[in-house]
Amino acid sequence: MAYLELKGINKIYPNGFHAVHDFNLEIEKGEFIVFVGPSGCGKSTTLRMIAGLEDISKGEFLIDGKRANELGPRQREVAMVFQSYALYPQLTVFDNLGYGLTLQGVDEDEIEEKVLNVAGILGLTDYLDRYPRALSGGQRQRVAVGRAIIRKVGVFLMDEPLSNLDAKQRVTMRSEITNIHRTTGATTIYVTHDQTEAMTMADRIVVMKEGVVQQIGTPKELYFDPVNTFVAGFIGEPPMNFIKSHVNGGCIKIGENTLDLKASFADKIGKYEGKDIIFGFRPESVIPMGTEKSYSMKCTVELTEMLGDNTNVYVNIGDDKAILKVNPHNTPAMDSEMEFSVPYDAAYLFDAETEMRIV
Ligand code: ATP
Q1: Residues framing ligand 1 (Cβ under 6 A)
Q2: Is 164's pLDDT higher than 80?
Q3: What spacing in Å lies between the alpha carbon of 112 and ligand 1's midpoint?
Q4: Which of 35, 45, 84, 159 to mutate to test the pocket of ligand 1 (most atoms within 8 A of CB)?
Q5: Which residue, by CA, sits nearest to atom 28 of ligand 1?
Q6: Ligand 1 mean position to 162 CA, how many Å?
Q7: pTM above the 0.85 mark?
Q8: Which residues, in sequence order, are CB contacts of 117 under 8 Å at separation 6+?
Q9: What is each CA distance from 354 to 106, 245, 254, 267, 350, in whole angstroms?
Q10: Mutation pick for ligand 1 pocket among 12, 41, 53 (CB with most ligand atoms within 8 Å)
Q11: What is the C-alpha to C-alpha distance for residues 82 and 158, in angstroms, rounded to an integer?
Q12: CA-208 nearest atom, ligand 1
């Protein structure tokens, strides 16, 4: 039996807006689950229903096999870290960390022991006497996380906890949160719109769009086996290239290039004869021209971005555009013509009408 179960969960706000549709998910004890999707897709709403901060309009939420819909936040034994991690400005780091325990009537010695322990885990030992105003954004964030993990709860819920940090701090905190998860082993549900956070931290990712779960899987499954163009385009940076084309004799034309899709999609392409499909490939999966088992294309270089470890090359293939990631030592000149290949096993096809993956 899963630890947490969301069965056909829906949220319809009082104004009639249907924010979450039939959300189904089983979460095992100790898992790190990330809800990811663009702004407004219903991630926070779902998290708040799990926390007990928002009513569930339809469906059932179970903890350890027992219905929890009617339980208040405290009875659910969850701790939540919000986007705006409001610390108490008049309290020191020590008191901020211990505040929840004080409210629970835990005795002082025990509070001290727990605060010192959590401060040790989070690298806050030297800051215990400081007030929040004298901390950096990253340190404040750690106090907010510390306040959540100091209570022994079954589940940590985090809503965009890194969004107020700068890029460098985010990278540091990302690995700190992963480490905390490893040490505490606590079941965690983490909300973000950032695919990198999702990919680097999650055991499993739930990709959402407009209140509907698109796909649930490990980072690897979502990257290599996306179910539709939305997931394929959301996971991966730069996003997957998509080029729409008409199937004629099992072939498609992209710019001046003819790709014989029968070569690698033999049994699947037949039923798309005379229809539009979307050809997809990731910027990082292109290779220099020439290998046999690949689709080769000529294109014109519009712009290059040297990033150090690789170069992003923006190209025009006829009227279509694509981004290619190439070795910085092979950066092509702007406006030059170049050729590249997409290995058969790195090419994706999507139904142009439904946007669902064909292969
Ligand atoms: P973000 O990343 O911007 O926080 P999100 O994916 O977490 O986005 P939610 O906050 O869950 O999105 O909101 C989902 C949808 O529900 C949005 O369209 C939002 O406008 C709407 N919504 C949120 N709260 C309410 C409310 N109280 N009444 C009506 N609609 C709401």
Answers
A1: 13, 15, 17, 19, 37, 39-45, 193
A2: no
A3: 39
A4: 45
A5: 13
A6: 19
A7: yes
A8: none
A9: 57, 15, 21, 20, 8
A10: 41
A11: 6
A12: 6
Gap from CA of 25 to ligand 1 centroid (Å): 20
The C-alpha angle with vertex 217 and arms to 201 and 229, in degrees rounded to 5, equals: 105
DSSP 8-state code for residue 206 = E
At 13-55, the pLDDT tens digits run: 999 999 999 999 999 999 999 999 999 999 999 999 999 999 9
For residue 236, is pLDDT > 80?
yes
* pLDDT for residue 153: 79
pLDDT tier, 183 (very low <50, low <70, confident <90, very high otherwise):
confident
323 is written with which tokens?
A: 């981004």
**What mean pLDDT is predicted for residues 223-252?**
96
- Ligand 1 atom with least separation from CA of 45: 11
Question: Residue 359 CA to chain centroid, in angstroms?
Answer: 23
In the prediction, which pLDDT does 81 show?
Answer: 82
153 C-beta neighbours (distance < 10 Å), count: 18
Nearest CA to ligand 1 atom 9: 42
Q: Report the residue among 15, 35, 44 best suited for mutation to probe ligand 1: largest number of ligand atoms under 8 A from its CB.
A: 44
pLDDT at residue number 4: 97
Q: What is the pLDDT of residue 314?
A: 98
The secondary element (H helix, E strand) that includes residue 340 is strand 337-343
Mean residue pLDDT of the chain comes to: 93
Distances in Å between the Cα of 324 and the Cα atoms of 224, 231, 246, 288, 299 are: 17, 19, 23, 11, 11
Check residue 247 and give its pLDDT.
96
Q: Are 311 and 328 in contact (CB under 8 A)?
A: yes
Q: Could you report the per-residue pLDDT of 85-94, keeping only the tens digit for each?
A: 678 999 999 9
Q: How far apart are alpha carbons 321 and 27 in whole angstroms?
A: 40
